[in-house]
Design a protein that fits this description.
Layout lengths: L20 H9 L1 H13 L2 E2 H7 L4 H13 L3 E3 L8 E4 L4 E5 L2 E5 L1 H7 L6 H10 L1 H15 L5 H8 L3 H15 L20 H10 L1
Antiparallel strand pairs: 1-3, 2-3, 4-5
Helix pairs in contact: 1-2, 2-5, 3-4, 6-7, 6-9, 7-8, 7-9, 8-9
Amino acid sequence: MSYDTEHVRNAGDTPGMITGIPTFAELLENPSLASLYTSIRRSGTTTGPELVETTTVSKKTVYDYLHKLEQAGLISKVDHDSRTAVYTAEKFELTLTVRETEVSITPALIEVIAQQNEYPAIERVLEDHGIVTFALAYDLVKAHNKRDVTIRQIASLADLSSGTAYDLVEAIYSILDLGDDESGPTTYTPDDFDEVESDLLEEFDDK
């Protein structure tokens, strides 16, 4: 029999033990850990030796990270008959609500955060503005790719400088391979830019 309570939903008959909550937080702060998780997620299945060959951290660190991610339930072994453990990444969504502001941490967000060492704009936004602003900006950049918002609007809605907003758009375009050419994000500005910004925010809330 499954059950839902105020704090737990979709747990099934035997809810699993989640012991690695700090690991979720570390994914936001440790690009190497985030990158390892992302590598497993992208590959579908992989092994420790394969990760040692493709990552920049030491062999010991790779296996420490694998243990940490497995303990947190973020990865699991899928081939128990093999002499070498085969891992796959688990889907997750960690939702936090503070003072009525809700932010969801997902694998897609972690994929971008994992590249903060290569793209200083990502690290700058995370350090100076925090995860809520970064997640908002991430969603707005994807909306920009659909020409729903301008870079100027992203800067205004996320409270970023125009330069930081452009750098972040450029970084996320590159990581997610957005756009239809190699020229980078366009600064397309519609004639109705002066529309009320709160209406735009409400539109995203509705989605």
